[in-house]
Design the sequence.
């Protein structure tokens, strides 16, 4: 290895001789993004540190700090510990492991590189998928002493899953197996057999030592039997997949409508595929309207042509309806539009996926509500086996159907011909309550039923039906603990409404479970489906003009919010029947609390299943302060707007 | 004709995309403007992102009253040229207590910058703030997201960051929470300089070498920018040909001796030099190992 005391800076001679010429060359460099993946102790951080060091991206003061750190906390004795350059956060330095995705930069004479350093241990699938999502190439590290491990399979599978085409198999720590050719060849053969199983047909294997520097940037004298490129040579010459975007039809998701004055209306976005010129015919998706490109406006002047990878502002010849979320596309080859899909989903949150729950789905610049069915199967990332699954836990990967609340423009993440559509095929899922990014996914295709089932236009409108009844439709959504008094009060409310000639209907939790929902139990998933069905029924009844009263525990905020979203603006009235647990339990009208306490009844709200108190209900009824009659009066007054 | 985009074109397009996403998805964004070269690039990208409209948010300068005079001059001009509102915030308490870098050490940065920033964000109810930090500057920054969430008290939790996939950014947040956005996360120092050169972006003249009065303190060359600088016994400012690689409060910012008077020369010197950029800043040396990470958890940008 290089002498640490006298680091050799391989400064480009051109910098000193003719800086302008150097800059001109540098300005035309392309960019490659790649990830390194390996297990703990495979030497990932050391390899990246070595690449930074060899491409002179480490300054003297950093090197001094590195030398001091290496002696203090390093794991390489008196020698320099390159891993310390890369392991950023104090917490992980203490643990001696990398815990998150970190991005590194270095430049050679040919390219600029962005490296995502992703951790290799079991619980961090999400980090690797995150790092891989923007990568053109993956370096899969293998410890020459250990060979192809379960982790190697996992990393390869994940790289392939997000569509990375360029795979480098870096057989590391060759110094520790005395640069033995047969050890290397055995590993490459093992890997080739495995890779073929998951659809990786092509990869580049290189024997290296990140620690000693063999075949990283300089060809090693220790491996005379190897005549392929060094790792750096390969990284500098491999074809960048971003160029493939150019061959696609034109597509640009609209981010922002630029409207400085009445005379200018431009649509700003990052072009995700193809090229565009003034005069090109375009189609706005999902609306389907067509127009012609008038101009491509940028700060540096109007362009005669723009291409994938550029951020521009486009003006059109017609005043068509186009806003954030729309996609402007080549008129003869627009993306598809659908609201039901099959997708691969990677779960990224501690709280498991709840089938049926409504999440935000963000795809390109479109954000819609979406819910997932129970997975068709989950994938064991170690064996690639398909497993039966009811949900997806943190770091689980599965295939599931999903439904969005309105149609979105999309393309399959991987086309049949192998084309990747990351922008219009990749999505994230966001929890509506915590706002965390809980999952990421890749659309496979639209489900046929979504294409064939159309909305039937009704001649008699909901307004007409409500008008005939001389009332405003509402959903009075009672929520509260078991025994809080929901059904009692709901009954009284309905009686009063009936007496006043209002057309109402009471949907009661217990009753519905005897019929419509008799196939559902009390797991979280079933509870969500229970509420979803009741919500849909309630919504249909409001279409018919009714005032719907419902009495369900409905313990989760997210589902109450889901029903609110189903209803027309202002029609959903959340009525929180607020009875303390101690009071409800003391009443215990149906003897359920007793059973739950005895352990005979599982998942009982308030006992071993949570109740999420409404944060801003339209009405809060404190049953310790008023009688059921008073409560009913109060609610009726509210409904009728008195 | 379609061709492979250069790395600078890709970086520019990515940054513009990020800036537009923030404007589309947050209620009240602001751009923190420190007048340095990174801020200059970020501001230029904002102008490009929204042209022909001016950027639809104000600039915020969290002032310490101790910046170089030349920085104040460019600050006002740059905001005017961009057609943007410039908000200047100075921490009143720090002003009253006369907090300064000579007598108060780390407290100076803490009160003027960290506290000042929090106060300003609270005062204007900004829910999103652009910052010009780059991942190549410092190790803890290498792991920070482009969209970085702050609690209602402005704290950063490095272990609870949202995954960022593809170029999809999740800007959803609860009331009171805010986001710091780093549109030039993936730029390196060389990228910044080249972009400044290619786009002819105006930067503070202090980045270019000129004879300036300096004293040598604790191994740093400190420029005597105004009469508030107390001279120690035996200290006599001398004129030396110097320039700055980073800019901050003048008493805390070390100059380098240099003859680089043009952008090309500055870039050449940067490429040939062997010390990293932040070394000229006294601020990173306060608490030794992991000090920036600690500052960020407390709310420093």
Sequence:
């Amino acid at each position: 290895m290089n002498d640490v005391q006298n680091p050799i800076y391989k400064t480009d001679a051109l910098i000193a001789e003719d800086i302008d010429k150097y800059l001109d060359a540098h300005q035309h460099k392309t960019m490659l993004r790649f990830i390194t993946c390996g297990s703990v102790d495979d030497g990932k951080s050391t390899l990246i540190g070595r690449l930074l060091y060899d491409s002179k991206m480490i300054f003297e003061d950093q090197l001094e700090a590195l030398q001091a750190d290496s002696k203090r906390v390093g794991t390489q004795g008196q020698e320099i510990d390159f891993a310390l350059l890369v392991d950023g956060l104090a917490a992980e330095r203490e643990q001696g492991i990398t815990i998150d995705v970190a991005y590194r930069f270095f430049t050679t004479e040919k390219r600029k590189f962005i490296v995502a350093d992703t951790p290799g241990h079991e619980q961090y699938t999400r980090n690797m998928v995150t790092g891989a999502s923007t990568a053109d190439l993956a370096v899969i590290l293998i410890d020459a002493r250990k060979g192809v491990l379960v982790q190697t399979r996992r990393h390869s599978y994940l790289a392939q899953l997000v569509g990375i085409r360029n795979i480098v198999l870096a057989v590391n720590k060759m110094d520790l197996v005395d640069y033995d050719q047969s050890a290397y060849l055995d590993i490459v053969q093992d890997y080739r057999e495995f890779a073929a199983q998951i659809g990786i047909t092509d990869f580049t294997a290189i024997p290296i030592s990140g620690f000693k520097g063999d075949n990283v940037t300089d060809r090693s004298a220790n491996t005379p039997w190897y005549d392929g490129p060094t790792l750096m040579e390969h990284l500098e010459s491999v074809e960048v997949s971003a160029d493939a975007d150019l061959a696609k039809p034109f597509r640009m998701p609209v981010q922002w409508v630029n409207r400085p004055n009445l005379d200018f209306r431009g649509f700003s976005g990052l072009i995700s595929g193809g090229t565009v010129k003034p005069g090109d015919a375009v189609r706005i998706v999902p609306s389907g309207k067509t127009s012609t490109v008038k101009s491509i406006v940028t700060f540096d002047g109007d362009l005669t042509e723009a291409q994938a990878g550029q951020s521009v502002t486009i003006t059109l010849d017609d005043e068509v309806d186009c806003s954030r979320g729309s996609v402007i596309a080549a008129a003869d080859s627009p993306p598809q539009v659908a609201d039901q899909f099959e997708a691969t989903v990677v779960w990224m949150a501690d709280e498991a996926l709840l089938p049926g729950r409504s999440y935000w789905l963000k795809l390109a610049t479109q954000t819609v509500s979406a819910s997932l069915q129970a997975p068709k199967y989950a994938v064991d990332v170690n064996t690639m086996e398909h497993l039966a699954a009811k949900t997806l836990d943190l770091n689980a990967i599965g295939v599931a159907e999903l439904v969005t609340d309105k149609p979105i423009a999309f393309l399959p993440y991987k086309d049949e011909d192998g084309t990747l559509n990351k922008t219009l095929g990749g999505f994230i899922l966001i929890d509506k309550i915590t706002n965390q990014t809980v999952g990421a996914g890749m659309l496979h295709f639209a489900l046929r039923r979504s294409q064939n089932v159309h909305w039937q236009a009704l001649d008699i409108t909901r307004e007409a039906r409500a008008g005939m009844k001389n009332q405003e439709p509402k959903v009075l959504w009672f929520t509260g603990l078991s025994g809080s008094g929901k059904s009692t009060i709901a009954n009284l409310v309905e009686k009063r409404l009936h007496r006043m000639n209002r057309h109402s209907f009471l949907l009661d939790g217990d009753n519905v479970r005897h019929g419509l929902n008799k196939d559902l139990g009390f797991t979280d998933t079933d509870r969500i489906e229970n509420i979803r069905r009741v919500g849909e029924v309630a919504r249909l009844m409001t279409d018919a003009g009714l005032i719907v009263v419902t009495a369900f525990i409905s313990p989760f905020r997210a589902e109450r919010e889901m029903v609110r979203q189903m209803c027309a603006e202002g029609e959903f009235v959340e009525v929180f029947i607020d009875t303390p647990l101690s009071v409800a339990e003391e009443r215990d009208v149906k003897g359920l609390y007793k059973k739950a306490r005895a352990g005979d009844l599982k998942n009982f709200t308030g006992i071993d299943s949570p109740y999420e108190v409404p944060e801003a209900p339209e009405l809060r009824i404190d049953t310790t302060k008023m009688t059921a009659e008073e409560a009913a009066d109060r609610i009726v007054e509210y409904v009728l707007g008195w | 004709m379609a061709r492979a985009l250069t790395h600078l074109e890709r970086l520019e397009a990515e940054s513009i995309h990020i800036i537009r996403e923030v404007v589309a998805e947050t209620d009240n964004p602001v751009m923190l403007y420190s007048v340095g070269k990174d801020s200059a690039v970020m501001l230029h990208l904002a102008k490009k992102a929204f042209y022909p409209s001016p950027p639809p948010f104000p600039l915020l300068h969290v002032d310490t009253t101790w910046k170089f005079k030349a920085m104040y001059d460019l600050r006002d001009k740059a905001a005017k040229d961009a057609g943007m509102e410039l908000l200047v915030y100075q921490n009143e308490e720090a002003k009253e207590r006369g907090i300064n870098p000579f007598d108060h050490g780390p407290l100076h940065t803490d009160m003027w910058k960290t506290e000042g920033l929090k106060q300003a964000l609270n005062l204007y109810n900004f829910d999103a703030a652009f910052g010009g930090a780059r991942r190549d500057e410092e190790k803890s920054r290498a792991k920070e997201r482009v969209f970085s969430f702050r609690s209602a008290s402005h704290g950063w939790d490095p272990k609870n960051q949202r995954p960022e996939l593809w170029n999809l950014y999740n800007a959803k947040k609860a009331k009171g929470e805010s986001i710091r956005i780093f549109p030039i996360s993936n730029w390196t120092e060389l990228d910044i300089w080249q972009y400044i050169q290619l786009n002819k972006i105006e930067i503070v003249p202090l980045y270019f070498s000129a004879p300036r009065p300096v004293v040598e303190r604790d191994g740093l060359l400190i420029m005597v920018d105004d009469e508030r600088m107390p001279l120690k016994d035996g200290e006599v400012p001398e004129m030396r040909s110097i320039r700055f690689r980073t800019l901050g409060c003048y008493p805390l910012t070390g100059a380098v001796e240099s003859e680089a008077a043009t952008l090309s020369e500055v870039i050449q010197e940067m490429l040939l030099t062997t010390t990293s950029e932040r070394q000229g800043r006294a601020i990173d040396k306060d608490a030794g190992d992991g000090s920036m990470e600690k500052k960020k958890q407390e709310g420093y940008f």
